[in-house]
Amino acid sequence: DQATAVIVKLSHIMRYMIYEANKPTVRLQQEIDYIRDYLDLEAIRLNRRFDLQFHTGQVDTNLDIAPLLIIPLVENAFKHGISDQQEENWLHIKLEGNAQRLSVQVSNSLKPVALRNQAPSGLGLDNLRRRLELSYPGRHRLDIQSSATEFSAALTLDLS
Fold first, then answer.
1. 21: pLDDT strictly greater than 70
2. Which of 46, 49, 61, 79 is the most exposed place for a label (fewest CB within 10 A)?
């Protein structure tokens, strides 16, 4: 039933990756659209509903930012947190910003220990840190917090 929606979302994602993501900067609105398509695909993939909140009301969507800086945090939430094998899944994303500063907060439930992949990970966050150093040297902050049941990341970019 959802094949058409999946194909459309995938085509948007592929178009963004091919034509926009290799540019030095993109409009924040393009990044938001990309994330929404990704979230829609993940929601289709899961067998159960989950609490998804994506707030962008307090952000200037015409800002220019380096592409693909927010998506690793969202992908991380699905890899380590959102599971169709647990009852309580949630993911909250909030963007705030203006011409001087962009703030991104991503928090999510974590899978129970029994469902977590025990293989070492962290490549996504390590790559994000390297990209931040290249694109925003001395002008960014990435704070990671984790407990037994929740993971949160706060990213701040100084755009001025």
1. yes
2. 49
Model confidence pLDDT, tens digit, residues 93-107? 999 999 999 999 999
Pairing of the two strands 64-65 and 26-27: antiparallel
Distance CA 141, CA 128 (A): 11
- Which residues fall within 8 angstroms of residue 118, CB to CB, at 6 or more apart? none
**Maximum pairwise Cα distance, the chain:** 48
Closest of 31, 48, 29, 39 to residue 9, by C-alpha: 39
At position 71, the amino acid (one-letter code) is I
Characterise 11 by phi-psi region: left (phi > 0), alpha (psi -120 to 50), beta (else).
alpha
pLDDT (average), residues 120-146? 92
**Is residue 108 over pLDDT 80?**
yes
Whether residue 21 contacts residue 66, with contact meaning beta carbons closer than 8 Å, is answered with: no
